[in-house]
Structure formats: C-alpha cells, structure tokens
Request: fold
Amino acid sequence: MALPVSADATPAAPVRSVSARHFVRLKLRVMGNNFRGQGWRIAMFVGGALLGLWFAASGFFLFAAPGLTGNGTYAVLIAAAGGGLLVLGWLLLPLVFFGVDETLDPARFALLPLPRRTLVTGLFAAALISVPALAVLIASFGLVLTAWSLGGWSAGLVAVVGVLAGLLLCVAASRAVTSAFATMLRSRRVRDLAAVLLAVTAALIGPLQVFGLAALREADWTRLRGVATVIGWTPLGAPWTVGIDVAQGRVWAAPVKLLITVVALGALLAWWSKSIESAMVGAASAGKAPVRRGVAGGAVAQLFPRVAGWAHRDRFGALVAREARYWWRDARRRANLITIAVVGIFVPVMINVTGGDFAAMGDEGLTSAASDSSPVVVTISMLFVGVLAAVTLANQFGFDGSAYAANVVAGVPGRVELQARMTAFSLYVLPMLGVVAVVLSVLLGRPGWIGLTIGSLVATYGAGLAVNSLVSVLGAYSLPETSNPFAMNSGAGLAKGLLTLLAMLASAVAAVPMVVAAALLGDAWLWLALPVGAAYGLGAALLGAYLAGDVLDRRQPELLATVTPRR
Reply:
C-alpha cells in the first residue's frame, strides 16, 4: 500500500528501485551538510560520541564480567537485567530527555510514491546509523565474550545473533513509541492524556533507580536469578540471554527466544508503520473551534491567554502573551513543563523525607529521615529543583526556529525579548515551584520552613534564568520542523545533553551563596531566606537579561541562522 499523495498530484507508480541503502546514504549526506561550517556542532558531536563510547565500554565490561571471571552463576541475571534496562532506556529516555533523531523527517516523504514497507525499512535502517546504536552494540558484545568463554564458539555465534536482534528491537521500540506519542499529542482531545503518560514516564525513572540501588544492597540473589529467568522469556530479555542458554546447555531455548524477539520486532514495526502514515499526512482533528462572542477588547484581547491577561497591550505584553500561549499549546514545550513538575516533587521528597533510601519506607523510617533533615539539606535539594526548572530555557530560541525572523525584522531589543520570555515561562513554573515548597514543608512536618523552601527555590531559579539566557544566545541549535515533539536533528540529542549539563553546573554555582547562607546563619536564615532569596533571584534574572540582551542584539542574524532548520 503506497502512502497517499496530494489531491492535485497525478498518482505515480511506486518507486521500486529505492532501497534501504538510499536512506542510509541520504542520512549520511544530510549529517555531513549539517556539520558543514558549524565547528561548535562538530565539537559537541565528537564530545557526545566520546561520552557514548565511555558508557559503551563500561557496559561491555559489565556484560563480560561472568566470562572474564569464568563464573557463569549470575550470567543470566546480568544478561536479562542489563538487556531489559537497555530496551526500557530506548523506550523512555527519548520521551523525557534527549528526543529521537529525525535527520530524515518522515513528513518530507509524504508526497513521494513510496510504498509504506520501503519507507519504514529505509527509515529503520537509517535510524541504526547513530551513536546510541553503536554504543549499545559495543556494550552488548560483552555478552558475546561471556557466551564464548562459557560455552565455546557455538554459544558465541548464537550470542551475536541475539545481540543484533536486541539492537533492532531497541531501535524499533523507540521509533514506534515516539511516533505514536507524537500522533497523540496532535489531537487536542487526547493531549491531556498524553501529558499524564509523559508525567508517569518521567516519574518512573527516578524511583526505578532508587529502588534498584536499594535492591542491590539488600538483594536475595537466588530470588533475583528466578526473576531474571522470567524476564529472559519476555521480549525485554529474550535476545540477550540466548547465548547464555546455549553455553549452559539449554540449546532448545535459543530458537524459542529468538522467535519471541522476531514476533515482538514485527509487532513494533507494524505499529510504527500504522502510526507513521498519520504522522506524514497531517495533524489530527481537534474538532470545531469555539466561537467567542462579546469578548472585551476585541480581536487583540483574544490573542492574550488568560494567564497573561494582565499584560499591557504593548510590545512587551505581546511577547509575553505569545510565549505563554506557545508554552501551553506546543507539545514539545509542554512535555518539558511536565518533566519539571514531576521531577521537582520527586527529588526533594527522595532526599529529605526518605533520606535517599527507599528500602526503609515505614513510618519510623520516614519520621527518622525527616527529623534528620536540616536547612542546608533542604536548600541543596531546592537548588537542584530550581536549576532543573530553569535549564529548559537553555535552547529557548530553538523552539521558534525560522519564526524567530519576525522578531529580528521587528527589531525587538534583546533585553525586552529575554525579559518577556522569562516572564511567560515563569507564569507556569513559579506556581509549580510554590507547590513543591509547600508539599515538602508539610511532608517534613515543619510548616515554618515554607519561607526557606520558597526562598531557596526562587533564588536558584532566578540564577538559572540568568545563566540559561546567555547559554540560549551563545549555544542555540536548531530543532527539526516536525510535529513530533520528541524529534531531534542528528547530533542534537548529544548536544542537548552536554549543553544541559553545562547550564545546570553553571546555574548551581551561581546559587551556591544560598547554601552558604543556610550553613552560616542557622535559625536566622529561616526568616531571611524568603526575602533574600526573592531579591537574589529577581536581581540575578534581571542582570542576566541585561547582559545577555546586549549579546543578543549583536548576534540576532547569527542566532537566526543557527536555529533555522536546514533542509
């Protein structure tokens, strides 16, 4: 079945000469063109590649540990648990943090007479050409070494087949899930449901890490081996354990597990094939738009959302209204807001209420951990939340893309631009930070610390706004022109990760005075934190907008060229 073409176009016969290798060559050429004349982008890509190879080497030695030690007792446990985490990582991380590489945007193939099978096969092959895929391949080859050491060359060859099948499963799962979520987020009717799913996804990452560390400290390894055996018969662990099964004499299990993997891979590709068509032919219908009658102020007033209804009808107010509307309606921006809300509540509770240990969550454990909390610990946890909230603006101009040209042509001053963007973003973030502060104080049983928590949050958030305003001007990068909220250009995922880390470190350093004050002033800081923190945060944000605004005035043309997607 060929994908639909435009109504005005004459239907053409499917292009049968196109194969997967053409998509691979096209991706490599587009990647090369994106790096041409962009030294900073090349440096970020190389740095991210080196970081990925470091993780790959660490994973290789972890998977190879049973083979290197000659002890296969826990080989199935390591293979099933590690492989399952790889698959879950490819499912969850693109949704929450780095996004998925969309160097070849499927929407650009909508008018071509390509059969759906050719398109899916080609995009799937192109997706395998990436640093994360190479890192997973290197890491999982540790399983080949283990199988070869424990069972000889035959087990090693079967492990190679399993590793390759596992890599294909990871990529297919990532593409199918992100494509399905992108389609959901186009529909205004289901967008709230998708937002909840994103929030749950973000919330699961931290708890799983904490529970995992607690389980490792007090693990019943015999019972965990039984759990790993069960996981090994699911698509999460089946491809990674086939070599170990052959090495340990369970040859009959290898073809069955490979069949499970093939069936799961086929189901994911079929799911992707169905969702990719809707991703190419347009947005889902949101129903009839409501008709507004008798709105005070006329058409201009309708352009101002309720959250920005207080803004003056001038240049600054118009910028605030536009950004406020985009932060609520743009799926990519909205996903970032949900991540802030979920992680912002989970991290302080984990650090202060549970003491970072979920292994003892009884009433006595919670009471003991809460009583051990101190203003310094609370301030440090608030520092992380404030930094995380502000780092979303590290590439705020990338969200605009070529639309930023309107501001350049209008000659919007840099300081006004940045102050308006800070204000609009804060309309959503500051209420969330207030909820975090109140919830933490209540859970600690110390309502008198609300001023401490709010002051620390506002100070750190303001310092983060200042740092990220400058980062967004100097380190911006383009995002693909697609309705998929999780799409990233080639290398942009690595660039985003490194840029985020740099911005968070700089913001944390800028907020260190709040931690020092909490340590030196003692109980007096409980009363001073709110006014001092509010003044510190507001002053830092205004100073950041002042300094970064001058840089923006000089770099507007270069910034526009940087954030404009290359075709």
Observations:
- The chain has a mean pLDDT of 76.
- Strands lie at 100-101, 487-488.
- The radius of gyration is 26 Å.
